[in-house]
Amino acid sequence: TSMHQVYVESGKGAILKDVTGREYIDFSGGIGVMNIGHSHPKVIAAIKNQAEKLIHTCFMVLPYEPLVRLAERLCKVVQVPKPQKAFFVNSGAEAVENAVKISRYYTKKPGIIAFDNAYHGRTLLTMSMTSKVKPYKLGFGPFAPEVYHIPYAYCYRCPFRLKYPTCDTCCADHLKEFFINQSAAENIAAVIAEPIQGEGGFITPPAEYFPKLLKICKNNGILFIADEIQTGMGRTGRMFAMEHWNVQADIVTVAKSLAAGMPLSAVVGKSEIMDAAHASGLGGTYSGNPVACSAALAVMDVFEQEDIVSKASVLGTKLRSHFDILQKEFEIIGDVRGKGPMLALELVNDRETKEPAAERAKALVKYCVDHGLILLSCGTYGNVIRTLMPLVITDEQLNRGISIIRDGLQSITR
C-alpha cells in the first residue's frame, strides 16, 4: 500500500507532477533519497551514458572502473579512521547487514546493541535491530538472536525521567549498566546507531552523547557503526551527521541519496576492519551495479560543483526559523528538533502531559497532500512531522510549503 494515492508521472528539483498534471511540492524526497532533487540532468546523463556502455557484469566476476572511482571518492568524504575502504551493495538494509557481518567477523563476537526507536531495515537481521513493532515487526518473528536494545537519548521524552543537562547524559552511561545486567562487553561486537533517529522521530542526541558513548565502546573493544543512511549525503547540513559531534565511527553505512534514486548502498570502514573477512565472504550479484555507481559519481560531482552541503546548511537555518515561529503560534507543537534541514515537529495534545497527537498528525499530512504538499509523519507514537525535501528547493517553494503546513495546523487545531 502507498501512503498517498498520488500517481507520480515526473519530477524536477523539489516539484512532482502527477498523471493528471497537478504539481506538488515535495517535502518527502522519496524518504530522504532525492537530496540533489528529482531528475538532476547530470545524473540522467550519467545513467544514459553508462547504460549504453555496460549495464552489468557482477563485480565479483569482472570488475569495472565506476565502482573503483566511487569507492575512492566516498572514502574521502566519509569520516572513519584512515586508511579506509568501501564495499557496495544495493539497499540500506543490505549495508547494515554487511556492517554487522564485518563487525562480527573482525571482533569474533556475536552481540549487537541497537536502540529503542531505531529503524535499520526490514530484512530478518535489520528488522531485529529495528525497534518499532507496528508495522515493522508484528507477525514476522522469530527474530535474529544476539540483538539487544537500550534506551536512546530522547530528551523530550527521557526514558530515565530526567532533564538535560542536569542528567549528565546518563543514557550514554547506561551502556555500562547493560554490560552488567544484559550481556557482557566481551560478548558485544558492535553498537549501531542512527546519529539522528529517522523513523523513530528525528530524535537528536545532545552534544555530549556520542563522544561519551564512543569512549565506552572503545574502552571495551566494541565497534561503533553509524547508520547514516537517512542522515548522510548533506541531509543535516554536513556531509555526514556524525561530523556535528566531531567523532568518528568505525563503520558507516550510506544509501538513500548516494545515487539519487538508483539502488546503491555502501559500507565504509577502517581498512583493517573491512579486510577482516575472507575472500568472497562478502558480495552479491547486483552489488555496486555500474549504472548505479555512475549515477553516484554524478551525485558526487553535483555536491562539489553546486556546493550542496552549504545549501543544506542555509536551508536548515531558514527552516528552523520557520518552525520556531510555528511552535510559538501553535500549542500543538511540543518540540522542534533535528539538525540542518533534517527537522521535525512533534505534535502533542497537551504540552504539559505530552500526550502524542497521532491522529492530528495524520490529519495534517492529509491536509497538506490535498493542498499540494507531500509530507511524511514518523515517530514511535506516529505524532512527528518530518522534513526531507530536496536540498535544492527554492525559497519560493519552501515558503509555499511552510504556508501549507501553517494552514494545515490551523485546520487541525480549530
Architecture overview:
- The chain is built from twelve helices and 16 strands.
- The chain is an alpha/beta fold.
- A hairpin with a 5-residue loop joins strand 15 and strand 16 (384-386).
- The longest helix is centred in the last third of the chain and has 22 residues, at 308-329.
- The two termini are 31 Å apart.
Main sheet makeup: 7 strands, mixed
Percentage of helical residues? 25-40%
Q: What is the string of helix and strand elements?
A: EEEHHHEHEHEHEHEEEHHHEEEHEEEH
What percentage of the residues does DSSP assign to strands (E)? Answer: 15-25%
- Class per helix and strand makeup: alpha/beta
Terminal Cα span:
31 Å
Short description:
By secondary structure, this protein is of the alpha/beta class. The protein is built from 12 helices and 16 strands.
Question: Which descriptors apply to this entry?
Answer:
18% strand, five-stranded antiparallel sheet, 16 strands, seven-stranded mixed sheet, 36% helix, alpha/beta, 414 residues
Secondary structure topology:
Blueprint lengths: L7 E5 L2 E4 L4 E4 L2 H4 L8 H13 L11 H13 L6 E6 L2 H16 L3 E5 L8 H6 L17 E4 L19 H12 L6 E6 L15 H11 L3 E5 L23 E4 L10 E6 H4 L15 H16 L2 H22 L3 E7 L2 E9 L4 E2 L1 H13 L2 E2 L1 E3 L5 E3 L8 H19 L1
Parallel strand pairs: 3-14, 5-6, 5-7, 7-8, 8-9
Antiparallel strand pairs: 1-2, 2-3, 4-10, 9-10, 11-12, 12-13, 12-16, 15-16
Helix pairs in contact: 2-9, 3-9, 6-7, 11-12
